[in-house]
Structure to design on (152 residues):
């Protein structure tokens, strides 16, 4: 059994994969955010593009998203805040940990989501400065080991 990349502790096949295959649709902003993170990990660029708000795509292409996925080495996701969403708007604050050379850094963003025609879409986000993981910090992959003994 392969656990889902989003950190839910559920099997990928019953967590984010049904969204990627179009068999299910996210019912909350957090669920969409988690499924988009998994799509970055698994290079599902078509899913990333289809779940990006059409009003804020501004020339974003499937090819550019695929390249971004292939250049990324994501190792863990932390949901920092997912307040109750309003009827058609929601936010999720997260850290997506990734490896860059011999360092582990976090993309830290507060994302905004919008519901259109019953489906949630990523709208925009505010990115914070990258965070560098310390050698003695817990590894973000979920192993419960220190980073220096795990992914560093």
């Amino acid at each position: 059994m392969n656990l889902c990349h989003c950190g839910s502790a559920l099997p990928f096949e019953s967590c984010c994969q049904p969204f990627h295959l179009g068999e299910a649709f996210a019912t909350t902003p957090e669920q969409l955010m988690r499924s988009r993170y998994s799509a970055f990990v698994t290079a599902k660029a078509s899913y990333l593009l289809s779940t990006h708000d059409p009003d804020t795509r501004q020339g974003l292409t499937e090819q550019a998203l695929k390249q971004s996925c292939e250049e990324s080495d994501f190792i863990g996701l932390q949901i920092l805040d997912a307040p109750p969403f309003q009827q058609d708007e929601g936010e999720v604050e997260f850290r997506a940990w990734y490896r860059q050379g011999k360092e582990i850094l976090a993309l830290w963003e507060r994302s905004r989501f919008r519901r259109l025609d019953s489906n949630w879409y990523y709208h925009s986000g505010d990115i914070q400065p990258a965070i560098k993981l310390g050698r003695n910090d817990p590894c973000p992959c979920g192993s419960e080991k220190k980073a220096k003994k795990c992914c560093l």
